[in-house]
Amino acid sequence: MDGHAEDGGRVYQTSGDQHINEHHHYGGEGAAHAGPDSVRRPAVGRTPVVLRDRLEVLERLRKSVAADAGGEVFVLHGMGGCGKTAVAHAFFQFATEIGDRVGLWVNAAERASLRAGMLAVAADRGASDGELLAARNGLRPGADLVWERLDRSTESWLLVLDNADDPEILWDGSWLRTSPRGTVVVTTRRAAARWWPGAELQHIGVLPREDAAQVLCDLAPQSGTIEEATKIAERLGRLPLALTLAGGFLSHQVLAPWTMDAYGRRLETGKRVELIDQGADALSAEDPRHLVGRTWQLTLDAFDARGLPEAVALLRLLARFAPEPLPLSLLDSSEISGVLPRARTETALRALLDQSLTELVDVGVRCVQTHAVLLDSVATATPPESLATLNSTAGRLLDAAVPAIPDAGPYNPRLRLFAPHMLALLRRVRDPATVADVLSVATRLSVALYRTGDYLSARDTSRTAIALAEQTLSAEHRLVLSARSRAGRALFRLGKYAEAEAMLHHVRTTQERLFGADDPDTLDSGHGLQLVVRNLGRHDEALSLLRATVTGRRRVLGPFHPLTLRSQASLLTMLSASELAAEENAALLSLPAQCERHLGPEHTVTLGARHNHAWALYVLGRFEEANEQIRLVVDGYERRFGPDYPIALSAQQLHARIQAALGHLDSAVELMSDVVARREDALGPDHPFTAASRELLTEFEEKRRLSSR
């Protein structure tokens, strides 16, 4: 491969030669690594007072963490609500407190949470900031990094992959592997052996009769006899989740305590939940949602009787979201007033917590998490006349939580927490107007993820949102096309140029036909398409697209709109020396000053314009001016993002070029040596970025050797 990348460019194997420039522009503040991707604490709330039964399974698991044991995978399978996570948590405590293992806990329910959790595992096992950035940017396989670090761990470990109910997620990217350094435990509802080759399957079923009764007595010891508890346990199918909800109810009735006998009678004769089929799978007689529904409905009745209708409303609102950690900050918003008064949210949440209807979890951010079976049961039993208000309120809460104008910046793990809830809401809603509103927020979330370098999560969020929204909206709906355009941009950043070009070309053509060539959405897709075409080596076509985008944005948005200035700044990296020197392009060289005047000195577009301006000055041979400009750019990037960030390395590499052009070869070699070392650490020695930087370093070293003769 003769092509090489310059200043943050990417090179991927194609036919023919390539010379690729790709500039990454980031902004924002703060460290890149603070946040909720903690894996040392299981993301579970209150655990059972006593773990009844399960002793045989636990004994087998405990043997796996004996001295020098490792390389095993255990799959704990069973229906929802049977206590798989409780067993995994009990084993986790044993392994960390007695077995001298490092405990690592990852939520494997969704692609985004699995990827973020596994990269946090890599960080815990010593992965560098640069390696993690490269994995999030899609520049190196994330799973390879994780398992390389697990294999090299100096400490033995236990890795729990919780809620892996979609095994395809684990196999897509090869996240599930074995290592002699540790033991893996998976919890799942999917028991088919084909999903778990080489693993030891352990079934977790409902509790034996005596143990089920004892759970109720553990939770509500003053409410009745073991015989009464046995009758209730049988009516609830001996399902641990249903027993926990029943026990929570019985133990928290203070003013008018219930007995087990009274509770049992209400289960038979009282109000029952009618599970309305709203497109969900048909419920069999054994479906755990039936059992859970009988318990929580009695609790909701009690809330109404105690004058706490807000607790009922809050639980129904939570059922619009996913069974994953939901930041409490999302609920602390004025937008919740559509369902319950904001001032009553605290009281309502405490009531749900007291009755074990939801749990507090801490994943670096304080969150609330509700069991999937309970959410499904509540969602299917919610009165149809309430759905419109609940859905619109859930959408407004997410809208308020996502940045109104996403800015470029370092990785923000808090953003990822909103993705599964956004997609869960899209699965719930059917009204076209609400679907459109939620899709608009989901696309904005995808943009926010993209602009913090989390390209994989951005792609997955856009792709899933499109698939869900298209069930209600047409494929040519403006918002669907906009979401698909963002997905195309993410594919480009992930190096999937052919897919990105096909998607963006189709979207832009459709937008031009439907909305016109100067529509802002059409122009946005055009800007994205020119990036792909340029990196495929079709310079003239890319330049034509970019010029058309600049002209259109100037006409529609105005000459000083951030998007107009951003497209103009891109021209600085595409024009030759003769083109830059031409009279008609003279104004381009004053672009950084225009950006600073209209947007401010720290605006992302201003920083990017300065970087591109330094490149243009280098191309023009104005090396002293270029050197002064790029030093400011390097300082700014490193101050805001750290020295390992791709754009910081891009700027440092350009600084090295300029130093070499000025004849300061010692400085050029020093700067490039640092770039090579950081890229080898982040990407490995064979990555095209690393190879291109090493080639440039070799060139500078040879020049220095010759000049010293």
Report on the architecture of this protein.
- With 709 residues, the chain is α/β, with parallel strands linked by helices.
- The chain contains 31 helices and ten strands.
- Strands 4-5-6-3-7 form a five-stranded parallel sheet.
- Strand 5 (157-162), helix 6 (167-171) and strand 6 (182-188) form a beta-alpha-beta unit.
- Residues 1-35 and 270-285 have low confidence and may be disordered.
Summarize the structure.
The chain has 709 residues and is an alpha/beta fold.
What is the number of strand segments? 10
Averaged pLDDT, please? 86
What fold name goes in the CATH topology slot of the largest domain? Rossmann fold
Strand content: 5-15%
Helix content: 55-70%
Cα-to-Cα separation, first versus last residue? 33 Å
Structural category = alpha/beta
**CATH evolutionary superfamily of the largest domain:** P-loop containing nucleotide triphosphate hydrolases
Shape: globular
SSE blueprint:
Elements: E1 4-6, E2 19-21, H1 55-63, E3 73-77, H2 84-97, E4 102-107, H3 111-124, H4 129-136, H5 142-151, E5 157-162, H6 167-171, E6 182-188, E7 200-203, H7 209-219, H8 226-235, H9 240-251, H10 260-269, H11 288-305, H12 309-318, E8 326-327, H13 328-331, H14 345-354, E9 359-362, E10 366-369, H15 372-381, H16 387-401, H17 413-428, H18 432-451, H19 455-469, H20 478-493, H21 497-515, H22 520-535, H23 539-556, H24 562-571, H25 577-581, H26 591-599, H27 604-619, H28 623-641, H29 646-661, H30 665-683, H31 688-707
Parallel strand pairs: 1-2, 3-6, 3-7, 4-5, 5-6
Antiparallel strand pairs: 8-10, 9-10
